[in-house]
Amino acid sequence: MSKNIASDIDIVPRNEEESWAYTKTVKNHFFHPQNFVTDASKMKGYDGLGMVGSPACGDMMKVWIKVKEDKIKEMKWQTFGCGSAIAATSILSVMATENGGMELNEALYIKPQDITTRLGGLPIRKFHCSVLGDKALRSAINNYFHKTKQEDRMIKEQTRIIDREAKVTDHDIEEAVLEGAQTLEEIQKKTKVGIGNPQIIPEVEQLLRFYTEKYFG
User: Fold this and answer.
1) Between 112-119 and 129-147, two packed helices, what is the crossing angle to 10 degrees?
2) Which of 72, 90, 176, 192 places its Cα 20 to 30 Å from the Cα of 148?
């Protein structure tokens, strides 16, 4: 076996139709993450702080930014996510600060696809890991806007309740798709949506098609 495990070993796919191979860029940013914070208590003098997720459900991310002349000059981050989340946020921190810093108005609209493209791709079932980073960055930018009395520039993450009985939102369905759900049955297994309220099934199926097309083409 090669001594260079980091560059030679990939996760073996469960079947021939689903690739779990990670690109060299993903591996590099996982084993050598850029702008990673090991001790959050030492973060001082930042202009914006964002956080998404929860340690209770396994994925949580914090982002700190410094802003000058409406550009992101520094982006630091910390996550309790998986290797893909680490790599995705590492490359995002590079994207946000390279070439003198990204304009805030541009950074607000970074999409998960932009991040995975810079990584050279991610396994389909790991796409959801790239979503945490862009939302955490938006949260940090919104925090900066709030602190600098620019509330009119803030972008709020919108959610809509789809199943009031199961307390499932459109965001929950989006997350299920990003985690690999491809059928109504798989969506229901993850969220319980529509099981006690079958009248909403057509709307759930419509959202399934929408998010599948949005993220996977």
Assistant:
1) 120
2) 90
